[in-house]
Amino acid sequence: MTSSKPSRPFVLQRLERCAVLLRVDQGSVITEGDAVEILRQSFDLTGNRQYVLLFELGRVRSISPGARRVLTSARDILACALVGAEPMDRMLSAPYEQAAYPAEYFTERSTALEWLALMHDILCADPVEHTMSLTVDHDPFQRRRAS
User: Fold this and answer.
1) Is the dihedral of CA 76, 125, 100, 53 positive or negative?
2) Measured CA angle at 57 (ends 31, 11), to 5 deg
3) Of 25, 31, 51, 72, which has the highest C-beta tally within 10 A?
4) Tens digit of pLDDT at every position of the chain (147 positions)
5) What is the 3-state secondary structure (H, E, C) of 4-19?
């Protein structure tokens, strides 16, 4: 028996309470339908919270105009770090400079994660106090335990 769900060219992974990683399959084209599904699944992954997005561009072949429109106008994204290494990756990231949220292009994942953590801590309005640390050696809830 085969699944009736269409295969999507992307994988989403929750990194933190309010952080999502977006990876795509090699040579993928992101369509408007994919973009809507990325937003829906990301919101589900974070328990219906606004989130920061780490978008790894290295395998993307193209992003359709409709997908760009959907992704750059998303209201649930607090900030987006786009990571790539090739001139094509930089070109794919350019439309995000006009997004409804802060977006930056990075060539190093570690720098992108640092920027996302900072942006999260500035912009997140979640009523449960928390900070975002995308490193394993830092406990973001340490302040609460010490009280």
Assistant:
1) negative
2) 65
3) 51
4) 444 555 788 999 999 889 999 999 888 999 999 999 999 999 999 999 999 999 999 889 999 999 999 999 999 999 999 999 999 999 999 999 999 999 999 999 999 999 999 999 889 887 677 766 544 344 444 444 444
5) CCCCCCEEEEEEECCE
Q: Which of 70, 147, 80 is nearest to 112 (CA)?
A: 80
Alpha carbons 88 and 39: distance in angstroms, whole number: 23
* Tokens describing residue 67: 């997908």
Residue 146 φ/ψ, nearest 5 degrees? -75, -20
Hey, is 119 helix, strand or coil? helix
Please answer whether residues 125 and 102 qualify as being in contact, where contact means their C-beta atoms are separated by less than 8 angstroms.
Answer: no
**Domain 10-146: which topology?**
Transcription Regulator spoIIAA (3.30.750)
Q: What is the pTM of this model?
A: 0.82
Q: Alpha-carbon distance 83 to 54, whole Å? A: 7
Sheet with 19-24, side-by-side order of all strands: 10-16, 19-24, 51-56, 77-83, 103-106
- In the chain, where the domains are located: 10-146
